TrEMBL record:
It comes from Roseateles depolymerans. GO terms for biological process: phosphorelay signal transduction system; regulation of DNA-templated transcription. GO terms for molecular function: ATP binding; sequence-specific DNA binding. Transmembrane segments: none annotated. Pfam families: AAA_lid_14, HTH_8, Response_reg, Sigma54_activat. SMART domains: AAA, REC. CDD domains: AAA, REC. This is ATPase AAA. Coiled coil: none annotated. It comes from the Bacteria.
Amino acid sequence: MARILIVDDDAAFREALLETVTSLGHDAEEVSRGAQALSLMKQDHFDAVLLDQRMPGVDGLGVLKALRDQGGAAPPIIMLTAYAGADNTIEAMRLGAFDHLAKPISRDAVQEVLTRALRSPQPSTQSAQHLPVSAGLAGFVGDSPAMREVHKRIGLAAASTMPVLVLGETGTGKEMVARALHRHSDRAAQPFIAVNCSAIPSELLESELFGHVRGAFTGATGDRPGCFRAADGGVLLLDEIGDMALETQAKMLRVLQEGEVTPVGATQPVRVDVRVVAATHKDLPAAVRAGQFREDLLWRLDVLSIHMPPLRERTADILPLARYFLERAAGSGQPKALSHEAEQALLAHRWPGNVRELRNGMERCQALSPHPVIAAEDLQLNRSGPGPETDTAGPLPPWLGGTLPEAVSRLERVMIQRALDEARGNRAEAARLLGIHRQLLYRKLAAYGME
C-alpha cells in the first residue's frame, strides 16, 4: 500500500479521486491548495502526488518549481488539468512532472499512472533544470492524445542537452517541434538556426554547415563561419538529414562526438556548443541497411526521439487546426466559418500532405471563397489529383509535352519566375520560397538565361 497525496481545489473532484485511490488499495490524503501540499510534503512522506494544475495561490507549476528549488528527492508528481494545452504540458514535464493527464480521468487511467509512478526508480524533480519560462507555442494547435504525447516528449527533451531526432511524414510540423524545444530550453535566448539538408547541393553543404576560409575553393573570397558557429550556444536544426551525403555524415559524426568543427580549407578545429536537432521523413534504419546512412551517426543522433503523427492519426485536431489557419489567414479581418458539410469533408479526407496541406487549403478558402461560410465544394480536396485507383486517362497539358528534361525545364522556369515575382526580385527570398539554396538558384537563372 502506497501513500498518495491529492491536491485539487475542486472539492467534488477531489473526493471522487480520493475514493478511487483508496479503492485501489492505497492510503490517500487530500488538500485543496498548493501551499498546503508543500507544507505537508515537508512534514510527511508520500509515494506519489496527484496535483491539479490550476488552483488559487500557488498553482501546480508553482508547486513543481518550489520542489525543484528545495532540491533533494521528491515523489513522482502527476499533473492533472482540465485545460490541456501544448504550453502547460511541456512546461510541467520540463519542470519534472512524472506525467500530465487531462481531466476527467478514469479509474483505469488512475490505476495505470500510479502503477508506473510507484515503480519509477527516480525522483521526478531531481533532474529538473532551472530553465526560463517559455513564450507561447504559436501555431502548435492540437490536444489529441497523439499530440499530448508529443508535448510530453518535448518537455522531457527540453530539460536535456542531448541530440534529438524528430521523425514524421512531410508536412507534419517537424520544424515546429524543433522550435518548441528551443523555446522551452535554457538556450531560448540563444540562436536557432535551421538548415534543409535536401535543399543544398552536397558539394555546398559542408561549407554551409562548417564554414570555410578564404581561398578554400573557387569563389571563396572571404571567411564564412557556417551554421554550426552561427548557432553557437543555441540550437541547430538539420532538417531532412536522411538526404545528407555519406562523406558529410562522417564529418557530422565527428562534430557531435568532439564538439568542434573544422572549416573547409582550415587546419585548426573550432570549438562549438550547439544542441543538434535532426529531422527526417525517411526510415533511417532502412537507409542504414541500404548503405545510405551511417549506423554510428544514427545512434549518435537518436538519443531522444520524437515522432510527429500524421494528421490522419489525429483527427481530433483537424477542425481546431482548420479554424486556426482561417483566423491566421484573415489577419485583422473576419475569418470565414466552416459549414457542417465542410467539417465532415475535412474529417473524411486522408491528408497526404498533412498539416501543410490543411493550412494551404484553409488559406485558399479564406482568400477565394465568395461566401462567409465555406461549403464542402469550396475545399477542393481532390484538386491534388486522382488517387491510385482512379482512371488517369485524358489529354496532357501542353507544358508536359516532349521529353522529361524539357518538361522539367519548363516547370522550373515557371516556378522560378513566380517565386521571383512574389519576392519582388529578391533572389535570396525567392530561393527560400522555392526551398533551394540560393547558389542553386543562381546557377539555374544562368542556365535558363533569366539573369
